[in-house]
Amino acid sequence: MNIDSMLRSQVPVQTSLERHSKMPSQSTESVMNRFVEFINTGNEDLAREVISPDAVFHAPSHPEPLRGPDGYLEVIGMMRSAFPDVQWTLEETVTEGDTVAARFTMRGTHDGEFFGIPASGNKISVQAMNFYYLADGRILGERGQPDLLGVMQQIGALPTP
């Protein structure tokens, strides 16, 4: 038996993402636009509109995944406590099926403690690359890679090269 036939003979495992319906790309764009509105306002009603209660988020600030709208609101709350004027700009997306790769620019002023670093008053502007998994008109998951090194350098916690 060759590797190709071995792989085809494996019993398929259905993930939570596969149990949800597929979305057309126009709906994907709408969900992402509403999501950006949510993260820029912290609006709890929007959070519940665009984030599935089954959603799982992997954030570098938390060792365990966060879940549902409340989990994402926790991350937004942490960011807003350190950067009260924080705003995200969705710069570009690539969509394949129900998966969206997104590049954001995050801007704000460091007016509160961030990972133990007291407020510096410094302005920041950093990039983030995130993958979003969508189903049934909502975000079902996210894996993000914000430029935390850039944030730490710009708030004065680490030297810049």
TrEMBL record:
**Annotated region Disordered: where?**
1-26
User: InterPro entries annotated for this entry?
Assistant: Cyclase_SnoaL-like (IPR009959), NTF2-like_dom_sf (IPR032710)
Show the Pfam families listed in the entry.
SnoaL (PF07366)
- Residue stretches of biased makeup (Polar residues): 7-16
- GO biological process terms held by the UniProt record: polyketide metabolic process
Superkingdom in the source lineage: Bacteria
Sections of the chain in a coiled coil: none
What protein am I looking at? Ester cyclase
